[in-house]
Structure formats: structure tokens, C-alpha cells
């Protein structure tokens, strides 16, 4: 018989420490980005530009005129939609004149610039989206079904492979996000939208935001490691 605590007994599974560690890392990163954004959202930019103003100027300076800027609800729900050529800015960014808001808007513009320049990691991430969505949705159901049906040597490995696809997406996301932030800092400086201490503040905001992607990838890798430790290369009658 199979159990979720396979190899370690039915009630005690030391690999849970990997799950707990992943949760702690994720929560810490989330708290960091929220506290950093809140701190610098109180610092008004000297230019007096809003996040939307800055985004429009950055896009125009990069020769991008086919990307629209939209206001969406939520807090830090900002994103660039390459399929529809839309840059969506949240409540805390669109109309805010803070250095934090301008930094986030510039980061999303960084993705639009990546799209314009056919940045390879961005294209790779886009190609992985369908596979990652399927993997994250089906991985655990397939693994659990394999355990219930006793199909350990067939369904469980398939579930682990599906989960690996979702982890790969998280890893590929890292260079895309780091590069977008680097582009954002460079363009904010070159266009004069921000300067001096404002650039330093914005770097702190974007560095904190990058930690959330690192934490998410780390948590996924730890979960994958747990699956491999529990089920990888093991057979059970």
C-alpha cells in the first residue's frame, strides 16, 4: 500500500520541513516587498509625474506607440500583457506620484521593451505558459491518483514531471524579471524621470519585488525536492 508519508511512516514525514521552509521564505519576501513599497510610496517624486505619466513617457522614449496603458483595481497587480499589448497599472501605481509607483510602472515598461526587442527569455517564458499551467493544475491530482490506484511506477512519475514543468517556468521567470528591473532603472535615469536619491529608493523597491520571484522559485524547488525524496526512484509493492 502507498501513503503520502511513503518511506517515512504514515504519520511522520520529515520532508514537511521543506514545505514549511518554502512557506517561510515566501511570506518573508511578501512582507519585505509590501513594507518597502509602502515606505517609498510616501516619497513624492520631484518630477511630479504619476505612474501612468512615467509609463507613457518611457514607452514613447523607447519608440513604443502600440502599447496602451490601463488602470486596473488592486494593489501591486501591475503587469504587461504582450498578447494584447496592454500595460496595466494598479490603484497604488496608476495615479500615484511616488518614487515607488514610478519604479513599478517603469518595471512593467521594461517588459514592453523586452517584447519590442524580442528578448529571448521573455519568449521562452511565454512558450512555457501553457505547459506550466497544465503542470501546476494536474501534478498533484495525478500523483494522488497514482497513490490511490497503486500506479506508483506510472502516474506518480508523470505527476512529478508535470510539477517540474511548473518549476521550470518559475526559474525562467527570474532573468525576465531581473532584466526588466535593470531596464527600468536605466531608463528612469536616462530620461530624467527620477534622479539622485530617487533612483536609489526605486532600486530598493524593485530589489524587494524581485525577492518575491526568487522566493516563489525557491519554494517550488523545495516542493519538487520533497516529491523526489518521497517518490523518486522508489518502488513499493
UniProtKB/TrEMBL annotation:
<dbReference type="Pfam" id="PF04298">
    <property type="entry name" value="Zn_peptidase_2"/>
</dbReference>
<feature type="transmembrane region" description="Helical">
    <location>
        <begin position="16"/>
        <end position="37"/>
    </location>
</feature>
<keyword id="KW-0472">Membrane</keyword>
<keyword id="KW-1133">Transmembrane helix</keyword>
<dbReference type="InterPro" id="IPR007395">
    <property type="entry name" value="Zn_peptidase_2"/>
</dbReference>
<protein>
    <submittedName>
        <fullName>Zinc metallopeptidase</fullName>
    </submittedName>
</protein>
<keyword id="KW-0812">Transmembrane</keyword>
<feature type="transmembrane region" description="Helical">
    <location>
        <begin position="126"/>
        <end position="149"/>
    </location>
</feature>
<feature type="transmembrane region" description="Helical">
    <location>
        <begin position="210"/>
        <end position="231"/>
    </location>
</feature>
<feature type="transmembrane region" description="Helical">
    <location>
        <begin position="155"/>
        <end position="176"/>
    </location>
</feature>
Amino acid at each position: 500500500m502507498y501513503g503520502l508519508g511513503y518511506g517515512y511512516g504514515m504519520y511522520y514525514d520529515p520532508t514537511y520541513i521543506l514545505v514549511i521552509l518554502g512557506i517561510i521564505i515566501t511570506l518573508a519576501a511578501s512582507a519585505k516587498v509590501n513594507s518597502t513599497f509602502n515606505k517609498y510610496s510616501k516619497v513624492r517624486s520631484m518630477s511630479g509625474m504619476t505612474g501612468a505619466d512615467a509609463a507613457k513617457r518611457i514607452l514613447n522614449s523607447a519608440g513604443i506607440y502600440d502599447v496602451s496603458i490601463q488602470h486596473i483595481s488592486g494593489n501591486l497587480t501591475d503587469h504587461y500583457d504582450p498578447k494584447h499589448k496592454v500595460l496595466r497599472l494598479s490603484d497604488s501605481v496608476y495615479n500615484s506620484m511616488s518614487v515607488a509607483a514610478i519604479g513599478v510602472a517603469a518595471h512593467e515598461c521594461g517588459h514592453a521593451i523586452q517584447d519590442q526587442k524580442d528578448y529571448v527569455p521573455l519568449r521562452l517564458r511565454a512558450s512555457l505558459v501553457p505547459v506550466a499551467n497544465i503542470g501546476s493544475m494536474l501534478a498533484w491530482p495525478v500523483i494522488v491518483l497514482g497513490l490511490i490506484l497503486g500506479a506508483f511506477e506510472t502516474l506518480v512519475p508523470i505527476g512529478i514531471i508535470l510539477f517540474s514543468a511548473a518549476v521550470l517556468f518559475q526559474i525562467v521567470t527570474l532573468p525576465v524579471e531581473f532584466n526588466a528591473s535593470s531596464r527600468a532603472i536605466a531608463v528612469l535615469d536616462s530620461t530624467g524621470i527620477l534622479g539622485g536619491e530617487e533612483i536609489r529608493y526605486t532600486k530598493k523597491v524593485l530589489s524587494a519585488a524581485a525577492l518575491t520571484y526568487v522566493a516563489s522559485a525557491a519554494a517550488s524547488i523545495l516542493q519538487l525536492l520533497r516529491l523526489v525524496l518521497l517518490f523518486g526512484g522508489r518502488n513499493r509493492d
